[in-house]
TrEMBL record:
<protein>
    <recommendedName>
        <fullName>Glycosyltransferase</fullName>
        <ecNumber>2.4.1.-</ecNumber>
    </recommendedName>
</protein>
<keyword id="KW-0328">Glycosyltransferase</keyword>
<comment type="similarity">
    <text>Belongs to the UDP-glycosyltransferase family.</text>
</comment>
<dbReference type="InterPro" id="IPR035595">
    <property type="entry name" value="UDP_glycos_trans_CS"/>
</dbReference>
<dbReference type="GO" id="GO:0080044">
    <property type="term" value="F:quercetin 7-O-glucosyltransferase activity"/>
</dbReference>
<keyword id="KW-0808">Transferase</keyword>
<dbReference type="InterPro" id="IPR002213">
    <property type="entry name" value="UDP_glucos_trans"/>
</dbReference>
<dbReference type="Pfam" id="PF00201">
    <property type="entry name" value="UDPGT"/>
</dbReference>
<dbReference type="GO" id="GO:0080043">
    <property type="term" value="F:quercetin 3-O-glucosyltransferase activity"/>
</dbReference>
Length: 479
């Protein structure tokens, strides 16, 4: 019997529907394909429609067409979640369907993909987002190697992973307490106030159930990939490695963007380059709270007040729907007129391009993981205003551990005076220089990890060999 090992492994990748997960997941598909794997990539139908519409004014675009024409073996398909494209997916009803009915849809799709390649042997493996609840079941049914991809830092993974231990010690739910936790493997000490919002809440919703279930499921994954860098989270990663094969392979970027452009944005993006090019180097504060988080109008008013007081140049992403307002504008009256000569307000933008522009000197961020990584990559220090989920824990890494950012406010409530003061601290002066120096250092760590003998590249190659061996081992067992 000929060895199966020479046959290309074929990754079946089913993407989560959230913007912050789509970006690294697509990047992972490109990376796997560039290592010689075949990939079948599935977006949810509504995600497919939204990207097609926002990026190409079309109803139906093969987002990987260009990547394929540059030689990568990626087949693109869609999967239905059982709802119409226009359905409002911010409801509990959706979470429930995602939890209970979506696994059947995945089962159907995986069955179909495997059948359509049945002559090609059984070199398939499964790659899912760690927030998925279906991988263990599907992997078992089809005998597939099960790869889980975690798009957030290892610290956050570790906290969810040790949920049971935290519960036994009475630290979850946090219920507003502030206590240091020092018994988690690979985590020296973390205050409960820095736990993700889902561990803070005492009232559990379906979303909590979904996340906790996903972290039960990941315990049977064959391999876990994490979009972080080993040198930044050495101990947390070492401790996780003792439990399961865990590979730090970040930061995942698209690589040569000109060669392999892949549309990933759910919203149309404003191009701010021309505006930025007319501003002095390091003079612009970029303000964005990401694709998902909501905040209240008062926060927007205080930040607007702070921007007015600080006199800083700025680009502010005000995403439609980020504030639940009763109609009308969310900015204070006259704000746009008073800042017309130094500010640009956009509904969404190409964040990477803004951060990489020399005019950008600071980032007021919600601390989404992609934003943090992109900001460090561009050597832009941050002011942190986390709103929920992992953002709260990510803030600790940025401000307390790596010292590449400061807090927007230290108390419970936000005032415009404090906002203005911290913008001043970030944008110029001694403290700003220190932050920039530290950001450069962390940037070097990221850059080194991505070189040929850097940790992330080596870890990725190691994963490639390990997954091939595991597929081979299973084939032999079957024969
Ligand atoms: C989008 O496509 C429609 C129909 O083809 C066309 O009428 C419209 O002008 C296009 N919009 C943009 C912004 O290109
Ligand atoms: C791409 O995937 C679809 C869905 O599984 C399948 O029907 C089709 O044959 C595949 N195309 C190629 C070129 O592999
Ligand atoms: C944005 O605009 C600049 C110049 O104004 C241009 O060079 C660049 O290609 C544009 N970027 C995109 C993504 O369209």
């Amino acid at each position: 019997m000929a060895s199966n090992k020479n046959r290309k492994p074929h990754a079946i990748m089913i993407s989560l529907h959230l913007q912050g997960h789509i970006i690294p997941f697509v990047n992972l598909a490109i990376k796997l394909a560039s290592k010689g794997f075949s990939v079948t990539f599935a977006h949810l139908e509504f995600v497919h429609h939204q990207i097609s519409k926002s990026q190409f004014n079309s109803t139906d675009i093969d987002i990987f067409a260009q990547a394929r024409s540059s030689g990568l073996d990626i087949n693109y398909t869609t999967i239905s979640d059982g709802f119409a494209v226009e359905f409002d997916r911010s409801t509990d009803l959706y979470v429930e369907a995602f939890l209970c009915r979506f696994p059947e849809k995945v089962d159907e799709l995986v069955g179909k993909i495997m059948q359509s390649h049945s002559s090609a042997g059984s070199n398939f493996f499964l790659v899912s987002d760690t927030f998925s609840v279906w991988p263990a079941k599907i992997a078992e049914k089809y005998g597939l190697v099960d790869v889980s991809f975690w798009t957030e830092p290892a610290l956050v993974f570790s906290l969810y992973y040790h949920l049971q231990l935290l519960r036994e010690n009475g630290h979850v739910p946090v219920n507003g307490r502030r206590e240091n936790v020092d018994y988690l493997p690979g985590i020296q000490s973390i205050n409960t106030k820095d736990f993700m919002s889902y561990l803070q809440d005492s009232e559990l919703t379906l979303l909590h159930k979904l996340i906790f279930q996903a972290f039960d499921t990941v315990k049977s994954a064959d391999f876990i990939l994490c979009n972080t860098v080993q040198e930044l989270e050495t101990e947390a990663i070492s401790a996780l490695k003792e439990k399961q094969p865990f590979y730090a392979i970040g930061p995942l970027f698209l690589g040569d963007l000109k060669k392999n452009p892949v549309a990933r944005s759910l919203l149309p993006e404003s191009n701010c380059t021309e505006w930025l090019n007319s501003r002095p180097a390091g003079s612009v504060l970029y303000v964005s709270f990401g694709s998902l988080a909501k905040t209240d109008k008062n926060v927007i008013l205080e930040i607007a007040g702070g921007i007015l007081l600080s006199q800083v140049n700025f680009i502010w992403v005000l995403r439609p729907g980020m504030v639940d307002s009763e109609g009308g504008g969310i900015l204070p009256e006259g704000f746009e007129d008073r800042t017309r000569d130094r500010g640009l307000i956009v509904p969404w933008c190409t964040q990477n391009q803004v951060l990489m522009n020399p005019a950008t000197g600071g980032f007021l961020t919600h601390c989404g993981w992609n934003s943090i990584v992109e900001s460090i990559w561009a050597c832009v220090p941050m002011i942190c205003y986390p709103l929920f989920t992992d953002q709260i824990t990510n803030r600790k890494l940025v401000v307390d551990d790596w010292k590449v950012g400061i807090n927007l406010c230290d108390g419970a409530s936000l005032t415009r005076e404090e906002v203005a003061e911290n913008i001043g601290v970030l944008m110029s002066g001694k403290r700003a220089d220190e932050l920039r120096q530290e950001t450069k250092k962390v940037r070097e760590t990221l850059q080194n990890a991505l070189t040929e003998d850097g940790s992330s590249e080596k870890n990725f190659n190691c994963f490639v060999e390990d997954v091939k061996d595991e597929i081979e081992r299973r084939c032999e067992k079957r024969i």
